[in-house]
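Backbones bend. We report:
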Amino acid sequence: MTPLWTVAEAVAATEGRPEKLSDGPLHSISIDSRDIEPDALFVAIKGDTLDGHDYVGAALAAGAAAAVVSQDWFAAHGGERLIVVPDPLEALRAMGRAARSRSKALVIAVTGSAGKTTTKEAIRTILGAAGQTHYSIKSFNNHWGVPLMLARMPRETQFGVFEIGMNHAGEITPLVRLVRPHIAVITTVAAAHLEFFASITEIAEAKAEIFLGLEPGGTAVLNGDHDYLHVLFSKARAAKVEHIVTYGYDQEADYRIAAPEAVGTRTFSRVTHGVQAFDLDLQVRGRHMVANATAALVVAFLAGVGAPLALRALAGFGASEGRGEVTRLGPPEKPLLLVDESYNANVASMEATLDVFGSMTPPDGQKVLVLGDMLELGPQGAELHKSLKDAVLATGATRIFLVGKAIEPLAEVLGTAQVVGHARRIEDLMEAIVSNLAFGDAVMIKGSKGVRLALLVDKIKQRFGVQS
């Protein structure tokens, strides 16, 4: 088996100094000593709360072939099987850069205010059916996640799919210049991270940084269903992007989506492009999910994947944990329907999810809605939470629970007649929520990750029992 790297290649890429280290294969790269595989390279980066240098010994004992450490740490501790560098994070970036340079893969980068992980997953689902595909796992989309995913890209990769996230202006630029995509996708522009931006226009401008790393002759794929498309077009032209393709429900979109039809847990829709028509059959519910799948379809066509294969792959695509995953718990004849949207939340994703829940019918019971704070919205947070009132009421939920401090303005406008429970912490409300559920109900859980609603999802699954 061809190794991911050799020790010699890692030393050359990082320009590090080997200490008591022989050449040999490196089959994986990790920054977490708990997931070390045999012959791994452990990179001791320093995070916000933990320092990887504290786990070098554990990583080597677990089977790592070598560890990348800082010069300062080595001077204080010494050791063997080490690659010594000034800064391990910069060494990881150098390895990402080298992996990208040696690769002949078609590379895709995805960003957006909402839907980027789901869109990335849809893209990799299609491309994975067409050839060897490497992709970002989980939401490894930040200053260490992107270089780590690049450094892990095998030599033989045909398609590389990378997610790029941001909280502040200027964060996407260095990441996309590492990735150097041939295709750049922006899923949407909406109110998110407003704590760090003066306006949504500034968010659009920050998302448009993805154009700065686009390879010459590359293509931008843009969702046209928001009010900031003109900002993206302007920035794309300034970055000399030659090809722009749009998709969405807007009549002017290059790939136009017809009104979806939901049947059970599936959604059907037709996408037209000129005289061509493509029929989507998805395992997920929601207009936003259809848009995410359409973005993946556009990327597939740009990658040379035929429509029959792409549509078959999408037919097997489902929502992932915390991002719209629907689980039926308990007896098949009268299950509890759990919609897990606990991973993240902003106004756009909240409205889309509430719309989906509104279209659902409980198996044989009531609708229960659990909403948590939308974080990082800054001074506009109170008004943005209040703005959800009509969408919440339109779901038809008979029991509404709210979790967090930022969501208090929504509790005020809904009133006690609608909100049966509200607490700052999920731990203080968990038992009340679970005891209010019964087989036959449908419950949707949505909030920012920091509210920790995933704890409630786990509790519900434990109490009601998971069945496929």
Q: What stands out?
A: The first strand starts at residue 5 and ends at 6. The chain is about 35% helix and 25% strand.
